[in-house]
Amino acid sequence: MRPLGGFVFGHYADKLGRRKVLVITVLLMGIGTALIGCVPTYAQIGIAAPVILAVLRLVQGISTGGEWSSCMSFLSEYGTPYNRGFIVSWSKFGVAGGLLMGSVTGAVMTAPMAVEKE
C-alpha cells in the first residue's frame, strides 16, 4: 500500500501543497492507529475483527507511503543547495532511530522474562 499511497498523495501534494498533504497523512495515520486500539476481539464480533484490522492496517500503509514521499520532497524543497542532502537525510535517520529504539525497548522489556528461575 505504500507505493499506492505515494502515488495518490504525491499527486495531491503537487496540487494542494506538501504541507497540507503531510497534515492529512499524519492525521490519517493517527486515526487508523487509534481505531486499531478500538477494534473488538474475534470472540466479540467474529470474522469482522480481523477484516477491520486488515483494512485499518491498509489505511496505515497508504498514509505512510504518502507521508514518506511528501516528507522527502518537502524537505528537499525547503533546504538550501548547501544543506539539502543533510536535511533530507534526517528523515531516513528518524526511521532508523525509531526502529532501533523500538528494538532496544522490546529487548529490555522481554529480557527479564527470559531468565530461568531455579
Automatic annotation (TrEMBL):
The chain crosses the membrane at residues 21-43, 93-115. Keywords: Cell membrane, Membrane, Sugar transport, Symport, Transmembrane, Transmembrane helix, Transport. One of its GO terms (cellular component) is plasma membrane. It is found in: Cell membrane. Belongs to the major facilitator superfamily. Metabolite:H+ Symporter (MHS) family (TC 2.A.1.6) family. This is Putative proline/betaine transporter. Its main location: membrane. Residues 1-118 form the Major facilitator superfamily (MFS) profile domain.
